[in-house]
Design brief:
By secondary structure, the chain is α/β, with parallel strands linked by helices. The longest helix has 17 residues. The radius of gyration is 17 Å and the shape is globular. It starts with a strand and ends with a helix.
């Protein structure tokens, strides 16, 4: 694994630091670099869905990462996760979707899975991912989604306290209905750490740590 190079593709400017810390802790021997393009997410939100143009643009980043010597690419935005899956067949290196390990872990422990998100264009792909994985595994699950209205706008405005409060409210609504909760966006991960113990009534999974653990396993296997 020493000398392996990993490219991270982000659509939120705060995420490189999140993944730098996790890599430093979990797999410090790799060489990492970051590509940040907010417009991939902005255009998806504006259009209400993942467009062919955005898919083409993400694939171009995957190709560039391979040409730059990356041994693996991780796409950290769930809203464009489907584009990452399409891109896998177009490059010769592994392309990891950040939310797949989280979905697998949730399916392993619960039949009623809650999905919390702050953006509709992230909520739908994450629900779809869990449902597809459940069907492939022959599991009968119900997925209950919760859009935390206003939280993403608060985050963009720099009001992290409001963002966190709205997400916590959404989680409180989900808890009585489900066995496990997944946070659809990597940017929501710190909410888990900020929750008081009294509020952690169910397992809550966020994607960054699980994704980097899976990254380490994938590189080791190669």
């Amino acid at each position: 694994m020493p000398g392996k190079r990993v490219a991270f593709i982000h659509t939120v400017t705060t995420l490189p630091e999140v993944f730098k810390k996790l890599v430093s802790e979990l797999v410090p021997q790799i060489d990492m670099y970051h590509i940040v393009d907010e417009s991939l997410l902005q255009n998806t939100i504006r259009g209400g869905e993942l467009s062919k143009t955005t898919i083409h643009r993400l694939v171009s980043y995957l190709v560039l990462a391979q040409r730059a010597g990356a041994d693996l690419v991780m796409v950290t935005c769930s809203s464009i996760g489907a584009a990452a899956e399409i891109g896998r067949s177009l490059v010769d290196i592994p392309v990891l979707r950040v939310d797949e390990p989280m979905a697998d872990k949730a399916l392993a422990i619960g039949a009623r899975i809650g999905v919390a998100a702050t953006v509709h264009t992230t909520l739908t792909p994450t629900v779809s991912l869990i449902e597809r994985k459940a069907a492939a595994a022959g599991k009968n699950v119900s997925v209950i989604s919760k859009l935390c209205e206003g939280a993403f706008g608060a985050l963009l405005a720099g009001d992290t306290a409001k963002h966190d409060a709205l997400v916590r409210e959404g989680l409180q609504e989900l808890f009585p209905q489900v066995d496990v909760v997944v946070l659809a966006q990597a940017s929501m991960a710190r909410i888990v750490e900020s929750l008081p113990e009294s509020d952690r009534v169910l397992p809550i999974f966020s994607s960054p740590r699980l994704a980097v653990e899976h990254l380490a396993q994938t590189l080791a296997a190669r």
